[in-house]
């Protein structure tokens, strides 16, 4: 038996270092690396599920071609032939933009981006823009600070208050919990702001139940108290803030009474939280992308950013507006031939379902990698219909998920254990190397190999002569000498990313036009119509004209899976979680079948009572496949939010109807 170190490829905050046992060419166990300061010797349920996925009977390890509605095995040679022919024909007749390449963050592996290299060299194709994940918050932080940077988790030990604003580490970031506990032991007060009393909230000293989509108003209300009671850090504001006067004027409207009526939070609680955060400095705010999945999500992040600025909590140990980081941006040599793409067009993620059928030139071929859009897109029914209209669709994945089932060609790729890669993320402050540990199962091939072989068939082979190891070496070129980050060192274990800072913005040099934190931003004014953080009600959740849909529908991330990557087979009907009072009001009991309906569709679910919810909220976890009875995104809305082409998944209302079989 041999033990090897590798890195989890899943796109989560933690980016764990894992220890893998290999016996006679098979992986027998996967665990957490005790020597890694974040992983701390344990991995989460989805980390464990990765080893099961490797040998799962549901995994498909040969190429499949759809003929007359059924799947048939074909050889790789035949697969490349038909794929290349469809790509070439579409390009010849309509230009390369007639090809859609849909990709997302299915894996954090750098070499998984070689699909981009292929399509850049093929000619500019059609790609998604914005983000299913965090787009609005990123835009907000760019307006405010000129970029986005986080503190090291180890810096939380210096915080005297920590606010988890919409973030739920008990589900999405288990390895943060020990850092929070340590900070608490040292005296930090922990606050959770979330419409759901999450398990994380059990750890907290204060729990604030905010009405969904109203965080912006809450943050402006806190600022109102801080300014009115002169609890702000005047020196910091004077030296580092641009546009304070405009902001102070905007904040005046948001008295605790007004904010209480918008958010449902008691005026007294608002005052107390404002005093706590302003007085007990330094204070760290950790955002969850969950709170920006609304029409007003960008403004909510701007309003919270502003709070950190007026209290002088930026650039100091124990402070921070921690959303995501760009420490790795431009660190590695580009291997995607980004400079070679001629033309190309993009469609914002939330509008793809609506716009794809209207494009000119039309979409003729689609290639889907590292994503499962038929399941994960908002208003997924509209995406599925648009996808269906495309003549020829290819999906590269491990198994026949909803998108693969809707495709014409399925190509099996390898998992992180079967081919080497370089791992990094915009949340973790580490970089890591994942070696090849076992031979690929069946005929599965690594994504870089698939695109290299396709390139060879299509006359682009000269651009794909590297092996995976050579690609990694090439990507590392800029950091090898400069920072001493070599493949050999990464093989020993994960390394800190060289530009990561213990304390973000400690030099107080902000990358905004004024060089200061912009509470008023001319760019934001031009691009969003608002110069300072403001509050506008969320679109569907805040609507007063949707009387038929009285309940909020929240669809947060599942604990056992990363989105749809580890489908559950135990339960056909996804649990629709509601408070016992809500159940009683609709004459429902635990285990009953219930139809959950939104303005876009219906889903048959099973009632699950959850005491942690508000009485006006239904919670269905995202990620369960349509083909196994899930597909909660049939219900979620697809429209552009205030900034960043993010997706307002949670800006959603629904109704409940007891299911009565005929
Ligand atoms: N186990 C697991 N871990 C994951 C993932 C996964 O799928 N599974 N996904 C990874 C990815 S890609 C991401 S983006 C992150 C997401 O990480 P998180 O942000 O922690 O998770 P989300 O599910 O996006 O939403 C977080 C919380 O937002 C709350 N929320 C909803 N509406 C509001 C609101 O109006 N205001 C406030 N204050 N809170 C609100 C929800 O109740 C939920 O508890 O997790 C990563 N980690
Ligand atoms: N209702 C609702 N919907 C949501 C969200 C929500 O909160 N609520 N959250 C949104 C968020 S934050 C995100 S980030 C998106 C995620 O959206 P997606 O990225 O589409 O979701 P995943 O289920 O992670 O799908 C990734 C796919 O990539 C495959 N994959 C993994 N590794 C590899 C690889 O190395 N190569 C290839 N070719 N494929 C690979 C996996 O098997 C999986 O099928 O979902 C969004 N959808
Ligand atoms: Mo995400």
Give a structural overview.
- There is one protein chain.
- The chain has 662 residues and is of the alpha/beta class.
- It folds into 4 domains: 2-54, Phosphorylase Kinase, domain 1; 64-129 and 339-423 and 430-496, Rossmann fold (3-Layer(aba) Sandwich); 135-325 and 507-528, 3-Layer(aba) Sandwich (Dimethylsulfoxide Reductase, domain 2), CATH 3.40.228.10; 551-658, Barwin-like endoglucanases, CATH 2.40.40.20.
- It is 30% helix and 19% strand.
- It is built from 22 helices and 27 strands.
- The strands form 7 sheets. A 6-stranded mixed beta sheet has the order 5-4-17-16-15-6. Strands 23-25-24-27-22-26 form a 6-stranded mixed beta sheet. It has a 5-stranded parallel beta sheet with strand order 10-9-8-12-13.
- Helix 4 (135-145) runs parallel beside helix 13 (297-310), helix 8 packs antiparallel against helix 11 and helix 11 packs across helix 12 (267-279).
- It is globular, with a radius of gyration of 25 Å.
- Molybdenum atom (MO) binds next to loops.
- What is the CATH C-level name of the largest domain? Alpha Beta
Q: Strand order of the main beta sheet, please? A: 5-4-17-16-15-6
Number of domains: 4
Helix content: 25-40%
Number of helices: 22
How much of the sequence lies in strands comes to: 15-25%
Query: What structural category characterises the helix and strand content?
Result: alpha/beta
| Bound ligands, each once | ligand MGD, molybdenum atom
The tally of beta strands, per DSSP, is: 27
CATH topology of the largest domain: Rossmann fold
Span between termini: 58 Å
Any idea what the radius of gyration is?
Answer: 25 Å
């Amino acid at each position: 038996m041999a033990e090897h170190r590798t890195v989890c490829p899943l796109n989560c905050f933690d980016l764990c270092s894992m220890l893998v046992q290999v016996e006679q060419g098979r992986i027998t166990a996967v665990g957490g690396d005790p020597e890694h300061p974040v992983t701390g010797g344990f991995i989460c349920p989805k980390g464990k599920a990765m080893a099961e996925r490797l040998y799962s009977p549901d995994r498909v390890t040969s190429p499949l071609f759809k003929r007359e509605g059924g799947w048939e095995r074909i050889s790789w040679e035949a697969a490349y032939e038909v794929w290349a022919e469809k790509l070439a024909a579409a390009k010849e007749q309509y230009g390369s933009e007639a090809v859609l390449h849909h990709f997302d963050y299915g894996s954090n592996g750098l070499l998984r981006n070689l699909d981009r290299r292929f399509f850049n060299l093929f000619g500019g194709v059609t790609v998604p823009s914005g983000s299913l994940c965090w787009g609005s918050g990123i835009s907000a932080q760019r307006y405010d600070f000129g970029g986005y940077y986080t503190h090291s988790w180890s810096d939380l030990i210096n915080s005297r208050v920590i606010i988890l604003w919409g973030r739920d580490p008990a589900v999405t970031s288990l390895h943060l919990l020990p850092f929070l506990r340590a900070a608490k032991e040292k005296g930090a007060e922990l606050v959770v702001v979330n419409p759901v009393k999450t398990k994380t909230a059990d750890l907290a000293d204060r729990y604030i139940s905010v009405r969904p989509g109203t965080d912006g108003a809450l943050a402006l209300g806190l600022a109102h108290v801080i300014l009115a009671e002169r609890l702000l850090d005047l020196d910091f504001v004077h030296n580092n803030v641009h546009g304070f006067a405009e902001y102070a004027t905007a904040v005046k409207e948001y008295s605790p009474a007004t904010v209480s009526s918008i958010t449902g939070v008691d005026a007294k609680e608002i005052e107390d939280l404002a005093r706590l955060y302003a007085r007990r400095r330094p204070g760290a705010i950790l955002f969850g992308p969950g709170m920006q999945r609304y029409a007003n999500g960008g403004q909510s992040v701007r309003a919270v950013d502003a709070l950190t600025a007026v209290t002088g909590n930026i650039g100091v140990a124990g402070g921070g507006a921690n959303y995501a980081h760009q420490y790795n941006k431009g660190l590695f040599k580009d291997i995607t031939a980004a400079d070679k793409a001629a033309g190309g067009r993009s469609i914002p993620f939330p509008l793809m379902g609506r716009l794809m059928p209207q494009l000119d030139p039309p979409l003729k071929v689609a290639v889907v990698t590292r994503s499962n859009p038929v399941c994960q897109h908002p208003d997924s029914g509209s995406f599925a219909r648009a996808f269906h209209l495309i003549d020829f669709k290819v999906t590269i994945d491990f198994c026949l998920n909803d998108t693969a089932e809707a495709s014409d060609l399925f190509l099996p790729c390898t998992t992180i254990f079967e081919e080497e890669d370089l791992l990094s993320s915009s949340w973790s402050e580490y970089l890591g190397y994942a070696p090849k540990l076992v031979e690929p199962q069946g005929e599965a091939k690594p994504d870089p190999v698939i695109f290299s072989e396709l390139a060879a068939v299509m006359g682009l082979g000269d651009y794909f002569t590297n092996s995976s190891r050579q690609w990694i070496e090439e990507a590392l070129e800029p950091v090898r000498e400069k920072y001493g980050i070599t493949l050999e060192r990464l093989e020993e274990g994960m390394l800190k990313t060289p530009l990561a800072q213990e304390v973000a913005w400690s030099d107080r040099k902000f990358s905004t036009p004024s060089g200061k934190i912009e509470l008023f931003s001319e760019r934001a004014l031009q691009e969003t119509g608002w110069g300072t953080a403001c509050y506008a009600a969320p679109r569907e959740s805040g609507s007063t004209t949707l009387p038929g849909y009285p309940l909020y529908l929240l669809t947060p991330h599942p604990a056992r899976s990363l989105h749809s990557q580890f489908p559950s087979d135990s339960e056909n009907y996804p649990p629709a979680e509601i408070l016992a009072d809500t159940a009683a009001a609709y004459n429902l009991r635990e285990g009953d079948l219930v139809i959950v309906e939104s303005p876009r569709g219906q889903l048959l679910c099973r009632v699950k009572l959850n005491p942690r919810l508000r009485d006006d909220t239904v919670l269905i976890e995202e990620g369960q496949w349509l083909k196994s009875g899930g597909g909660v995104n049939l219900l979620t809305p697809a429209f552009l939010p205030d900034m960043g082409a993010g997706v307002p998944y949670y800006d959603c209302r629904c109704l409940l109807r007891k299911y009565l079989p005929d």
